[in-house]
């Protein structure tokens, strides 16, 4: 590591990235390359001799950027956002610069302590119950993704119940969530050895706006108890991936509690909105939860990856995930004076991710972050109004946060034609490269998703995307006559 070379390359790279952001709208937002495109452009093996930095930058421009989908483009409206910001970026840069591996407190005390402090700050911004703060039995930890978050709490819950009922009961354990729950729960169940038939994804319908019905949950739990199964884990979502449905946390949490189950709340996307007092009520009932997760890397200006997880009882995580090999033993850990985050996660090694979240919170402050969220929600409302003015389209589910679920209405009420039409519309819009949207299926209907949340998006970008949608719809409807 030569400091002067770092200065030279670092400055050049920052210039390259700043220019990228300045010209980001010139790229097709969805990469238009064909599968395997890069094989033809790069050599079969690594160079024997060093290449020049400029040569590498030229290759990035000519060969890599065409294969990039521009998540930071203001014309990006697909899936959910994955925010970048100046604060998040420089925090990430510092983390790469220090390049510590903070698995135990001793390996970089600041990494552990800053993470605890910053997650306490964020917990307070979200008005999480005090039990989730690090001063008591609970605390927060930064995981890479929401998938890792649900996996570690599922493992904690599984081991907790097995300590009570005996480890031979694994195949009787049952997990509950709505069928709108993100697929990460299913993956976690696969990893945790939960019997595939015991992962109950309960149907949620339009009658509850795709939220999980507490009555349906209670009935299912009763049936499972009758046949000798052991309900142990309930996962609710605030802001589902398909349509931002919000499960009724309070009633669900009470059911979980009365059955001795672990209650996890996944607010990966919508958690960010809950720092605004007017949206905080969507989290009401979180006091019943054992764990709560939100992705700061989605809609909170913190560069990927930064998934914040809080638990009320950190010892449950530690009991499930700790190992204590000789080569990691040290005085502070042995004396139980410190948190060793290696015992709260799957991998041993961990990056100094709290730096970027700390920078975001310090350099923007709560009020700016609230304005940021409100502005996106305002833009989503604007898009919703545009749809309402065109009778060829409909908004399919009530818009709650910054996602609008909509579709082009089928001609002659022919639903299967409607599905095909909307699929074609999605492809037509995305192939222009001027906007990127994604889709889902709700109650058998193919639905288009317009998620506002990229930091650079302004009203003019929403209007431009709507114009492309309208034009492509006009052509498709003309063709289908
Ligand atoms: N939960 C919800 C509600 C999501 O929307 C997503 C992803 O969009 C996830 C979980 C999974 O996120 P991750 O990629 O952080 O695992």
UniProtKB/TrEMBL annotation:
Superkingdom, natural source: Eukaryota
Keyword match Transit peptide: no
Entry's Gene Ontology molecular function annotations: carboxy-lyase activity; pyridoxal phosphate binding
CC cofactor: pyridoxal 5'-phosphate
Database matches in Pfam families: Pyridoxal_deC
Modified positions (N6-(pyridoxal phosphate)lysine) in chain numbering: 298
Gene Ontology cellular-component annotations: cytoplasm
Alphabetical list of SUPFAM superfamilies matching this protein: PLP-dependent transferases (SSF53383)
Cross-referenced InterPro entries: Aromatic_deC, PyrdxlP-dep_de-COase, PyrdxlP-dep_Trfase, PyrdxlP-dep_Trfase_major, PyrdxlP-dep_Trfase_small, Pyridoxal-P_BS
Any GO BP: amino acid metabolic process
The entry's keywords: Decarboxylase, Lyase, Pyridoxal phosphate
Family note: Belongs to the group II decarboxylase family.
The protein, known as: Tyrosine decarboxylase
Lineage: Eukaryota, Viridiplantae, Streptophyta, Embryophyta, Tracheophyta
């Amino acid at each position: 590591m030569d400091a002067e070379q770092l200065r030279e390359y670092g400055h050049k790279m920052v210039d390259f990235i700043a220019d990228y952001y300045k010209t980001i709208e010139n790229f097709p937002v969805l990469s238009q390359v064909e599968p395997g495109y890069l094989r033809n452009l790069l050599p079969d093996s690594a160079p024997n001799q060093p290449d020049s930095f400029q040569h590498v930058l030229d290759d990035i421009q000519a060969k890599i950027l065409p294969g990039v989908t521009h998540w930071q483009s203001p014309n990006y409206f697909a899936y959910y956002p994955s925010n970048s910001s100046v604060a998040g970026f420089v925090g990430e840069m510092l983390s790469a610069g220090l390049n510590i591996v903070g698995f135990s407190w001793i390996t970089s005390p600041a990494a552990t302590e800053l993470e605890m402090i910053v997650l306490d700050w964020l917990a307070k911004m979200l008005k999480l119950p005090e039990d989730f703060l690090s001063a008591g039995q609970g605390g927060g930890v930064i995981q890479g993704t929401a998938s890792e978050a649900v996996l570690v709490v599922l493992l904690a819950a599984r081991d907790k119940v097995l300590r009570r009922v005996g480890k031979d009961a694994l195949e009787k354990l049952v997990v509950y969530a709505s069928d709108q729950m993100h697929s990460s729960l299913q993956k976690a169940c696969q990893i945790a050895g939960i019997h595939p038939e015991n992962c109950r994804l309960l149907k949620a319908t339009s009658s509850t706006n795709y939220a999980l019905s507490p009555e349906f949950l209670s009935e299912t739990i009763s049936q499972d108890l009758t046949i000798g199964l052991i309900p142990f884990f309930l996962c609710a979502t605030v802001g589902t991936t398909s349509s931002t449905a919000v499960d009724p946390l309070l009633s669900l949490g009470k059911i979980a509690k009365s059955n001795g189950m672990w209650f996890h709340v996944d607010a990966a996307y919508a958690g960010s909105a809950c720092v605004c007092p007017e949206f905080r009520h969507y989290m009401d009932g979180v006091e019943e939860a054992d764990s709560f997760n939100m992705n700061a890397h989605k809609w909170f200006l913190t560069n990927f990856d930064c998934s914040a997880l809080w638990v009320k009882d950190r010892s449950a995580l530690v009991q499930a995930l700790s190992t204590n090999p000789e080569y990691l033993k040290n005085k502070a850990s042995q004396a139980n004076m410190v948190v060793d985050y290696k015992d709260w996660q799957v991998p041993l090694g961990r990056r100094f991710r709290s730096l970027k979240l700390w920078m975001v919170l310090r350099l923007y402050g709560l009020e700016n972050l609230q304005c940021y969220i409100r502005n996106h929600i305002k833009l989503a409302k604007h898009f919703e109004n545009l749809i309402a003015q065109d009778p060829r389209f409909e908004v399919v589910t009530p818009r709650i946060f910054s996602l609008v679920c909509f579709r082009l209405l089928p001609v002659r009420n022919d639903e299967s034609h409607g599905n095909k039409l909307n699929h074609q519309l999605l492809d037509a819009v995305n192939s222009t490269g001027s906007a990127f949207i994604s889709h889902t299926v709700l109650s058998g209907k193919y639905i288009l998703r317009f998620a506002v949340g990229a930091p650079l998006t302004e009203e003019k970008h929403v209007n431009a995307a709507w114009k492309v949608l309208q034009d492509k719809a006009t052509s498709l409807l003309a063709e289908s006559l």
